[in-house]
Specification:
The protein is mostly helical and 126 residues long. 78% of the residues lie in helices and 0% in strands. It has one domain. This is SdpI family protein.
């Protein structure tokens, strides 16, 4: 039961985040991303002007899309692990720490994207 729960919870979280990242990337590519206080890369530099917002988000599209694909891959890996591991309590740490590791990679990629976007936005007004 614990392995199934861990797999399901990480999968749900990864799929939701992947969907949000893909949605943001699609809005940026369609030219529909506008400066706002709730959705997007918000820093002092990106919020300074519409020009900075657009430039920062356009610079981050490839990382957004790549991270979304990576999250889908991580979800698949978790389900493969769940399928091949024995269905007992010994499987829980393997799945949990795999999911935790994937989460660490996600956070690292999103931080890289944030700092790249912030630098682009800062260069507009710097």
């Amino acid at each position: 039961m614990g392995a199934a729960f861990s797999t399901a919870m990480f999968s749900i979280a990864f799929l939701v985040v992947a969907g949000l990242l893909k949605m943001l990337a699609s809005q940026i590519e369609a030219g529909q991303s506008r400066r706002n206080p709730t959705f997007g890369i918000r820093s002092k530099a990106t919020m300074a002007s519409d020009e900075a917002w657009i430039a920062a988000h356009e610079a981050s599209v490839s990382i957004l899309k790549g991270t979304a694909v990576l999250l889908l891959s991580c979800t698949a890996v978790l389900w493969v692990l769940f399928a091949i591991l024995p269905k007992d309590d010994d499987s829980v740490p393997v799945i949990f720490f795999s999911g935790l590791g994937f989460t660490g990679v996600l956070v690292t990629l999103l931080m890289r994207m944030y700092f790249k976007a912030d630098a682009v936005a800062a260069s507009i007004h710097g």
